Amino acid sequence: MPALIPVSWKEFEKFLLFVGCEFKRQLGGHRIYNRAGLKRPIVIPSHGTIPVFVIRNNLRLLGITPEGYFEILKRKKKKARKLF
Question: By residue range, what is the domain housing residue 55?
């Protein structure tokens, strides 16, 4: 399994939207997302890259393992290729 690496906030936002989260609002430099069944909203910084610990904490909140995260990214890329 590959290691988690920091990603841009736009890439992580695409992942969140792919797994069913929806953008609710922005407070300063942080974007807030929600999905049915979550204990609390997901908050990510809207600048630069998202550190690994933020990715890991948000995956835990979503109930997705790092292995599941990589599998979802693979499916997302395959789906994007089919569009072209």
Answer: 7-72
CATH code of the domain containing 32? 3.30.920.30
Number of domains in the chain: 1
Q: What's the CA gap between 27 and 74, in Å, rounded?
A: 31
Asked if 50 and 6 count as a contact pair (C-beta separation under 8 A), the reply is: yes
Per-residue model confidence as pLDDT tens digits over 23-67 = 999 999 999 999 999 999 999 999 999 999 999 999 999 999 999
How far apart are alpha carbons 60 and 42 in whole angstroms?
11
Tell which residue, 43, 48, 79, has the closest CA to residue 62. Answer: 43
